[in-house]
């Protein structure tokens, strides 16, 4: 692989004009596609084949599109000392409802004071109207949302308290906010400090942005042909930008090292792709496998998100091994700090080769902070390991109380949150978590009253079971069940199970439980069941990969255990902030409660790939030093001293990019971005910088032991060591037609 990548890097730098133009054309092409072919995205989650999802499809067939479409609840509350049923207030409500029925896209607006179907609180202080749209929530347009908001604002002029809630008011995640730009700025600062060159820092950042732009625009284009989740593009941007910057960082760092060794620009670019590029490809492949592996859990929307994000990673890898060396060919020795460029150089063909001045960019063998840290950790190995494990274990404690849901909570201070508060206090939380019992069959109308009577007797006291509503053909009926608890309460889950377990349908008749609450329960259960399976898959993959990379059994064990510590601490911190509410204001959490069901499995997939990235890059240097005869502890110090600065810079950048998506992200993105940010920090600065070197120091020679019966395993040269031992010749006098000679 190293030789092939060396050839690719050499071809890219020598044909840099063609390579750069090709990537620019790709960027423009997908940009045009995103602007002209993009379609609507989904903002809800369901799994085909589940009872609740099947019932939704039947409802559309039997009762029309509006029966399973988007709804918005307009909540009215009378002024203090008054009732909503007072004649003056009732007239105001009737006038407002008439206007709601005329909203763009709406097909109906219920009258809460209708004697046949009133929706008035028991104390008659509040009421709500349901505005129905014949489409899914994600298909409600921005203009229609603005019309709802404007109608609510106008209605408040009547003196009533008027608020609105519902999934149709939720806007899909946007890309490119101020907070994301802040993450890019932080990345640029870290790169500039790392390189000591604004030219190199800017090049690194621009290539990453080009790659993530192609990936995100391609996903947006794809929405015109298939329905994707609204969070898929922003997830791809977040992950693609972070790894794109890091992968380019690895290549550029090695390029600078090769320039200092005296190689020409062409040879240095080719060698950087052949060596560091091999680690980039390995790391990228790990992330891709982890993300694509989300398909094994059998959840379509999760598979789509994983594959889309994996495609963005593939693009980031391709950019790193082709576009980055091409741009390096343009900037040449400007990738070095100004003082180092002044070293006398000779011209080999049309390319400047830095004279053999500094032989390496490694830290000196003296004291230095990085070297001192490595020696401290390896000498105080028991204390270091225990302290690291104990710290992460304490942070992971909240993980054991983690709850998940698909129910979206409104941020505090919004009209949705105020509407929810009125409903909870006046009607009870169960109003926002209705369950729909669908009876389907030729005898559905006759069987409906029996089902209603049965549910009234078996469900908890206070549960409201409304009379059945037949369809026009008389082959189906709907019964609405309003529990006493909200959609996130365990008792609501028990009600769903009670309904499903207790009804024995008549022959030829089927009974389903559906509605948004039932869909949320079913999807959450499926995701929770899939998480242990997926975690076992990625842990097994990590073990096999590390065995192949390091030809050892104990190093993979250390790496896998370190990954589990990272996952536990990341989940623990996320639960503490987003479920318990600790320091929620500091990250602008908006609302707190159970974690979004799809977040844990996505976090596991992404963190797995990134953790293995740092493990491979750091420990491979230790392995290389040990293979060259260094004693175990000396190999740890040497490898740590070489790799730690780049890992620290890469982790800092990745933390900044992920953290930037937390303050202004939507409810789906915030906990995921937060968990990834803290997970990267825990993994890079505690697991890889403390726990792993301490554990390897304790193991000594045994760390690199491989049983004889496994000697047949192939050896993966992820650092291109063979290429360094036998570097291929580079003809610096070759000048392809698309090259610009140095100095022109």
Automatic annotation (TrEMBL):
The chain crosses the membrane at residues 181-198, 205-226, 232-252, 273-301, 307-331, 382-400, 531-550, 557-582, 594-612, 643-662, 674-699. Gene3D superfamilies: Multidrug efflux transporter AcrB transmembrane domain. SUPFAM superfamilies: Multidrug efflux transporter AcrB transmembrane domain (SSF82866). The keyword Transmembrane helix applies. It is found in: Cell membrane. It holds the Pfam family MMPL. Keywords: Cell membrane, Membrane, Transmembrane, Transmembrane helix. The keyword Transmembrane applies. Its main location: membrane. PROSITE patterns: SSD. Residues 181-330 form the SSD domain. Belongs to the resistance-nodulation-cell division (RND) (TC 2.A.6) family. MmpL subfamily. This is MMPL family transporter. It comes from Actinoplanes subglobosus. The lineage of its organism: Bacteria, Bacillati, Actinomycetota, Actinomycetes, Micromonosporales.
């Amino acid at each position: 692989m190293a030789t092939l990548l060396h050839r690719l890097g050499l071809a890219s730098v020598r044909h840099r004009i063609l390579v750069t133009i090709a990537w620019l054309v790709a960027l423009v092409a997908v940009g045009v596609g995103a602007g002209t072919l993009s379609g609507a995205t989904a903002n809800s989650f369901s799994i085909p084949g589940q009872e609740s999802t099947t019932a939704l499809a039947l409802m559309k067939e039997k009762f029309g599109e509006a029966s399973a479409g988007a709804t918005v609840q307009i909540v009215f509350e009378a002024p203090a000392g008054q009732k909503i049923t007072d004649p003056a207030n009732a007239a105001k409500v009737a006038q407002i409802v008439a206007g709601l029925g005329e909203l763009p896209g709406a097909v109906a607006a219920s009258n809460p004071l209708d004697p046949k179907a009133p929706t008035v609180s028991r104390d008659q202080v509040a009421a709500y109207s349901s505005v129905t749209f014949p489409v899914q929530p994600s298909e409600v347009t921005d203009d229609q949302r603005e019309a709802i908001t404007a109608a609510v604002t106008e209605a408040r002029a009547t003196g009533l308290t008027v608020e609105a809630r519902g999934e149709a008011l939720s806007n899909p995640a946007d890309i490119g906010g101020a907070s994301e730009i802040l993450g890019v700025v932080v990345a640029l600062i870290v790169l500039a400090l790392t390189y000591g060159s604004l030219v190199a820092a800017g090049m690194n950042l621009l290539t990453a942005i080009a790659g993530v732009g192609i990936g995100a625009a391609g996903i947006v284009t794809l929405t015109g042909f298939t329905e994707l989740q609204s969070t898929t593009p922003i997830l791809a941007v977040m992950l693609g930008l972070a790894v794109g910057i890091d992968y380019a960082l690895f290549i550029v760092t090695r390029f600078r090292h090769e320039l200092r060794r005296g190689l020409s620009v062409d040879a240095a670019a080719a060698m950087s792709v052949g060596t560091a590029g091999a680690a980039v490809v390995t790391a990228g492949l790990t992330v891709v496998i982890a993300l694509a592996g989300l398909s094994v859990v059998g959840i379509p929307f999760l598979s789509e998100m994983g594959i889309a994000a994996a495609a963005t990673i593939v693009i980031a890898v391709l950019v790193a091994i082709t576009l980055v060396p091409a741009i390096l060919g343009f900037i040449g020795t400007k990738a070095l700090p100004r003082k180092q460029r002044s070293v006398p150089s000779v011209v080999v063909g049309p390319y400047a080769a830095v004279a053999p001045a500094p032989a390496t960019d490694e830290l000196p063998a003296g004291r230095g902070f990085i070297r001192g840290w490595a020696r401290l950790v390896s000498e105080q190995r028991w204390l270091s390991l225990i302290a690291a494990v104990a710290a992460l274990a304490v942070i992971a404690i909240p993980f054991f109380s983690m709850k998940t849901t698909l129910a979206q909570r409104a941020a505090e201070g919004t009209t949705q949150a105020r509407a929810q508060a009125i409903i909870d206090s006046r009607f009870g939380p169960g109003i926002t978590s209705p369950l729909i019992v669908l009876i389907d069959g030729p005898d559905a109308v006759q069987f409906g009253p029996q089902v209603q009577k049965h549910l009234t007797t078996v469900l908890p006291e206070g549960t409201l079971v409304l009379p059945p509503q037949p369809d026009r053909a008389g082959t189906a009926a709907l019964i609405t069940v309003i529990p006493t608890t909200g959609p996130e309460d365990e008792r609501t889950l028990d009600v769903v199970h009670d309904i499903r377990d207790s009804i024995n349908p008549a022959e030829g008749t089927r009974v389903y439980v559906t509605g948004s609450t039932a869909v949320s329960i079913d999807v959450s259960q499926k995701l929770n069941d899939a998480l242990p399976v997926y975690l076992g898959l990625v842990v097994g993959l990590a073990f096999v990969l590390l065995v192949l990379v390091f030809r050892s059994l104990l190093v993979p064990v250390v790496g896998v255990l370190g990954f589990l510590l990272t996952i536990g601490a990341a989940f623990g911190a996320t639960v503490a902030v987003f479920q318990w509410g600790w320091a929620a204001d500091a990250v602008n959490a908006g609302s707190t409660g159970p974690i979004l069901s799809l977040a844990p499995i996505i976090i596991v997939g992404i963190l797995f790939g990134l953790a293995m990235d740092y493990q491979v890059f750091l420990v491979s240097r230790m392995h290389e030093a040990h293979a060259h005869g260094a004693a175990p502890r000396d190999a740890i110090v040497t490898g740590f001293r070489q790799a730690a600065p780049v890992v620290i810079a890469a982790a800092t950048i990745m933390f900044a990019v992920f953290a930037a998506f937390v303050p202004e992200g939507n409810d789906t993105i915030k906990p995921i971005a937060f968990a990834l940010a803290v997970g990267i920090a825990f993994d890079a600065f505690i697991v890889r910088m403390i726990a792993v070197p301490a554990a390897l120091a304790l193991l000594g020679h045994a760390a690199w032991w491989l049983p004889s019966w496994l000697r047949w395993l192939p050896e993966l040269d992820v650092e291109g060591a063979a290429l360094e031992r036998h570097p291929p010749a580079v003809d610096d006098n070759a000048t392809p037609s698309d090259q610009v000679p140095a100095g022109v």
